[in-house]
Amino acid sequence: MASLASKGSQRWLQLAVNRKQELLAEALRNSGALALGASVSWAAPLERHGYAEHRDEAALVGAGIEPARLKVPLSAFWPKGGPRWDAEGKSSDGAAIFVEAKSHISELNSNPTGARDPKAAALIRRSLQRARKHYARAATAGWGHPFYQYVNRLAHHYWLAKLNGQKSRLVFLYFLNDHDMGGPSSVQEWKAAIEVLHLALGLPGNISRFGVFDAFLDVRTLRADAAVA
Q1: By residue range, what is the domain housing residue 146?
Q2: Domain count for the chain
Q3: Do 97 and 88 form a contact (C-beta atoms < 8 A)?
Q4: What angle separates helix 148-158 from helix 118-135, to the nearest 10 degrees?
Q5: Interval 70-127: pLDDT, tens
């Protein structure tokens, strides 16, 4: 049997998906990503599959999307080897759910794309520019380093929801009180950091109208199971 991750957002999300699904669903409902009474059938990270995380077509299938039926194929928008999603599933009301989880503020920073092929790098730049115009038409901020991971998740959601008309929701899940990682203890701390991030990217403060949501979950509600590996 696979062991839980040793620490950080990966560990807490594994616990939430596999052992505390109602707590996770409640956090998503509070964010607006999930309707009242709705639930999620998670495809990853599942204990029985070694907590594997998915990317590209595998992540789409896990969220209930058939890649072959998309109007704009993934290959036309992003090179192979795109985001590895922390979690994905399908809601009981038919929406694809994709999750990116964080437990401390420094995780908001990330390196620029590592694509070495010039054609792949150019495709990424074009797709990020298209996504930026969708979320923040007047923005001129560069969408890359130091927030590349954040913007490439936004770009993939734009591709699914806008270009392909899929019922899809992107959730940034922020854990509270992960003291081992020096993480925030309050929603207000996270929101302050998110506000700075959005200002740097030229984004409005609230982007839920695009199907993008911020959810918060206190790790103290998960610690009862944390010792079980």
Answers
A1: 8-176+203-225
A2: 1
A3: yes
A4: 70
A5: 999 999 999 999 999 999 999 999 999 999 999 999 999 987 676 778 999 999 999 9
